[in-house]
Specification:
It is built from 13 helices and 9 strands. By secondary structure, it is an alpha/beta fold. The protein has a single domain, classed as TIM Barrel (Alpha-Beta Barrel). The radius of gyration is 17 Å and the shape is globular.
């Protein structure tokens, strides 16, 4: 899949689920996402054997868009972590790419070497916590910039405060603390794509999903999130059909550039 098609899928979906549950099946979760109208998932490297999960998704659902997340693009830090976690090491950016991931997500910035190797080939979404990091990472080739941890940084108020300073050019993906209560404020602030985990689901309902392996309930929860995002984006950009619009049209209508 070409990088522009990957980014187009993420922007059309408007939502990236952070798959961080070892007790759920990754393929069944992806199927629930598809049934909810979402065509991607972000497999975090905080779960066990993340690369095996990515490889399985690519094999069983080849048209589904799969990302690798929680990457640490720093050889020294990676070496220190893996020295004490040899039984389940954290993969490098290169290993994540080789597993078949179509987009790469980091909690922190990507190195210049990673942009040289992967920009234009895979979608890159670095984690950023300041305006300077956002601008620098975008300037190096980031397609979207993850705001993390979004809640602790100030949530929608943070986005509203910094967006004018970056001339509303870069598409930000707030991740961390996303809820049905703050999604409207994020979209009102100009956000096109939100990241969120299973913590968005009410605790007792999530327990039921896990205990019963009930992917029907999960599908309905995801449908609710997708429906809310679609409705709110429709109100924010009434002349834009996100489900069918090209990236060029989305860019023209919203002012966001995706580095493609």
């Amino acid at each position: 899949m070409k990088v522009n098609k990957c980014v187009e899928t993420l922007v059309r979906d408007g939502f990236i689920l952070v798959f961080n549950q070892d007790k759920l099946d990754v393929v069944k979760t992806a199927e629930a996402l598809l049934q909810a109208g979402i065509h991607n998932v972000e497999v975090t490297c905080r779960i066990q054997k993340p690369l095996e999960n990515i490889e399985r998704l690519r094999k069983e659902l080849p048209e589904f868009v799969v990302g690798a997340a929680s990457l640490i693009d720093c050889p020294g830090t990676l070496k220190a972590y893996n020295a004490t976690h040899a039984d389940d090491p954290l993969p490098s950016v290169k290993e994540a790419a080789n597993s078949g991931a179509q987009y790469l997500v980091s909690a922190v910035n990507f190195r210049a070497k990673s942009y040289e190797k992967f920009a234009g080939k895979l979608a890159l979404i670095p984690g950023c916590g300041t305006t300077s990091e956002i601008v620098q990472q975008f300037g190096m080739g980031a397609n979207l910039c993850k705001i993390f941890p979004a809640r602790q940084l100030g949530g929608p108020a943070f986005v509203k405060a910094i967006d004018p300073a970056i001339h509303k050019l870069i598409s930000l993906v707030p991740t961390g603390g996303t809820t049905s209560e703050n999604i409207p404020d994020y979209i009102a602030a100009g956000i096109l794509v939100l990241g969120g985990s299973f913590s968005m689901i009410e605790k007792n309902k999530l327990k039921q999903i896990i205990d019963e392996q009930n992917y029907g309930i999960l599908r309905e929860e995801l449908k609710t999130v997708k429906g809310m995002i679609d409705s709110l984006r429709g109100q924010q950009w009434p002349d834009l059909d996100f489900a069918n619009a090209s990236l060029d049209k989305i860019s023209q209508a919203t002012g966001r550039n995706f580095n493609l």
